[in-house]
Amino acid sequence: MGSKNDYPIMRKCEQILKKFGVKYDVLIVSAHRTPERLFRFAKNAHKNYSVICSGAGRAAHLSGMCASLTEIPVIGVPIKDKHTDGISSLFSTNEMPNGIPVATTAINGALNAGLLAISIIALQDKKVRQKLHKYRLKQTNLVRKRPK
Predict the structure, then answer these.
(1) If 0-12 CB within 10 Å is exposed, 13-18 middle and 19+ buried, where does residue 71 land?
(2) What is the DSSP letter of 32?
(3) CA dist 37 to 9, 24, 93, 114, Å?
């Protein structure tokens, strides 16, 4: 995430990854304030990770910069801010040039970022795939056919 202020939102991503038993790291890497840290992290991410979930507000260049420096999938979470309600971070995360894709969730969509990461990991990990299947079945079973 771009700053410690993003953690209350990104915690939802952390929680779902933990629930599925997926290993993860929680890091603050700012595209603007720690560019060298960002560069080192993203250039080496393929050695330790299968996917990056990246949350940032305001200018939100973190996800796009990560994507430009690595070949692994990057999922961007635009974080709501008090100035633009997250619209600027949504556009900064979503509007990437051709050739540098960033999968983008809704504003504050960290839970879905985690689930998308889990879906990507499930392509290669049978245990995660089984847990995801059970999670989805549980969601389906919670939806009533008729209102009470």
Answers:
(1) exposed
(2) T
(3) 22, 18, 19, 23
d(CA 126, CA 80): 35
| Whole-number pLDDT of residue 146 | 92
* CA pair distance 62, 5, nearest whole angstrom: 14
Q: What region does 58 belong to: left with phi over 0, alpha with psi -120 to 50, or beta? A: left
pLDDT digits (tens, 9 = 90+) for 109-143: 999 999 999 999 999 999 999 999 999 999 999 99
Mean confidence (pLDDT) of the chain: 96
- Residue spans per domain, the chain: 4-142
Answer whether CATH 3.40.50.970 is correct for domain 4-142.
no
pLDDT attached to residue 58: 84
- Indicate whether 71 pLDDT > 90: yes
Nearest by Cα to 68 from 79, 54, 78, 81: 54
Task: Give the integer Cα–Cα distance in Å for 39 and 21.
Answer: 28
Paired tokens of 32: 């603007």
